[in-house]
Write a structure and sequence with these properties.
Layout: E1 2-6, E2 10-15, E3 18-23, E4 28-32, E5 45-49, E6 55-59, E7 62-63, E8 80-81, E9 93-94, E10 96-100, H1 106-112, E11 125-130, E12 143-144, H2 156-174, H3 179-185
Parallel strand pairs: 9-12
Antiparallel strand pairs: 1-2, 1-8, 2-3, 3-4, 5-6, 6-7, 10-11
Length: about 190
């Protein structure tokens, strides 16, 4: 099932249950995730290409250990949502779709995988589509639909409240431990 692509240049898809980035020319599979996808289970996926053209893959906000075999530089133009080079098309469902004009960091992907936001408060976000808002048409077989197993996407207000709550715990985790007090707590 294809996520995003353009004929002869890019096909981000699932092959053998693993997320992969396939490019045209001599490179073909530039990167294939080591962690397989679970059928019928909602998973947030992100494919990121840095300024040098090297790809990284993320599943549910976590960096997959796969390493890109080579950079794949060059412009990505006229990409199609839900497009794949296979004749059967895409048989996937997307809860939300985001395209960025910059490489997002691991921290940004981990922080935002369960959040929904519009372009007005997301620098670099060039396209966002969901089952509620997208007026376009995906390629053959693909659909954008609400599913029951995805985590609820947080609003900006909910995300700020959650960030404030967890900032306290991150601050505590950054402090050095006290072995003597730890032994007393046993």
């Amino acid at each position: 099932d294809g996520i995003l692509g353009t004929p002869g240049k890019l096909d981000i898809n699932f092959f053998g249950g693993n997320l992969r980035v396939h490019v045209g020319g001599t490179l073909h599979d530039v990167i294939v995730a080591k962690k397989p996808m679970m059928p019928d289970l909602w998973t947030h996926v992100a494919a990121v290409r840095d300024a040098e053209g090297r790809w990284s893959l993320y599943l549910d906000g976590e960096l997959d250990p796969a390493q890109a075999k080579a950079p794949a530089p060059g412009p990505l133009e006229k990409v199609r949502i839900g497009w794949t080079g296979t004749k059967s098309g895409t048989q996937g469902a997307f809860a939300e779709y985001r395209l960025w004009n910059r490489a997002r960091t691991a921290a940004e992907i981990r922080r935002d995988f369960d959040r929904s936001f519009g372009a007005e408060n997301a620098p670099g976000l060039v396209f966002r589509g969901s089952g509620d808002t997208w007026g376009g048409k995906p390629q053959k077989g693909a659909k954008i639909a609400k599913t029951s197993d995805l985590p609820p996407l947080l609003t900006d207000e909910q995300a700020l409240a959650l960030d404030a709550k967890f900032s306290k715990y991150r601050a505590l985790a950054a402090q050095p431990g006290d072995a003597a007090r730890g032994r007393q707590a046993r």
